[in-house]
């Protein structure tokens, strides 16, 4: 019998809970056009975990990575929620690197 | 260097659980009249998944542990989705008797998916939202 899976489940639960927070804050202060960077961060964490032998650290990186990739696909809907007034709207967002290119890509929403 | 695929399996389990949960919670809440039924099924499946992870090993224990907590979260999300319907943050289904009652009882409830639109780049005015609700409810 092992509790490792339960701990990882609890960890994923907490990471997803944090996901609600960072998607809301990230969209408010940075804006939806940061989505590819969050997606890349998530992919980098998952790929980086391939080179980590420690199962705990690899799992933390993987779970955080999966959650970042998901969160990147949530930013578009969050942007609409703020535009509709369901969340505070910040007109002075930080411009994303390569924003003029990113604006041409339809933001993912699953 | 030895490649350790454990983290990628955890990433896939997390991402797929959120994705499938997100889509199925919305679809099931929309169609079910008695919401406690799918809530009970998700919660029990979650407990079963967690219990199974105790005797599993390798990838399985991680996937079952992650899936277990996600299923229990989905159970709670079914309830939260109904609250979104009540305040008009998610579209009600006029064919669902439970949603019919919500539409009659909660003035903010409507049948319009307000999130399904392109980014505007500024806040909507209250007038604009009223117009959208009026035009799209008429469709």
Question: What do you see in this structure?
Answer:
The complex is a heterodimer of chains A (110) and B (139). By secondary structure, chain A is mainly α. Chain A is built from 4 helices and no strands. Chain A has helices spanning 4-29, 35-49, 55-83, 99-102. In chain A, helix 1 runs parallel beside helix 3. The longest helix of chain A has 29 residues, at 55-83. Chain A starts with a helix and ends in an 8-residue tail after the last helix. By secondary structure, chain B is mostly helical. Chain B has 5 helices and no strands. In chain B, helix 1 (6-31) runs parallel beside helix 3 (58-87) and helix 2 runs antiparallel to helix 3. Chain B is elongated, with a radius of gyration of 19 Å. The mean pLDDT of chain B is 96. Chains A and B meet through helix 1, helix 2 and helix 3 of A and helix 1, helix 2 and helix 3 of B.
The helix/strand order of chain B is HHHHH
| End-to-end C-alpha gap of chain B | 60 Å
What would the average pLDDT of chain B be, to the nearest integer?
96
How large a portion of the residues of chain B is in β-strands, by DSSP E? under 5%
- Give the DSSP E fraction of chain A (strand runs of 2 or more residues): under 5%
Protein chains sharing the most extensive interface: A-B, 51 and 49 residues
Oligomer: heterodimer
Question: Ranges of chain A with pLDDT <50 over ≥5 residues?
Answer: none
Instruction: Assign an overall shape of chain A.
Output: globular
Structural class per helix/strand content of chain A? mainly alpha
Tell me the number of structural domains of chain A. Answer: 1
Count of alpha and pi helical runs of chain A: 4
The gyration radius over C-alpha positions of chain B equals 19 Å
Low-confidence runs of at least 5 consecutive residues of chain B = none
Structural class of chain B: mainly alpha
Proportion of residues in helical segments of chain A: 55-70%
Could you give the count of β-strands of chain A?
0
Q: What is the overall shape of chain B? A: elongated
Topology, number of strands of chain B: 0
Main pleated-sheet profile of chain A: none
**N-to-C CA distance of chain A:** 37 Å
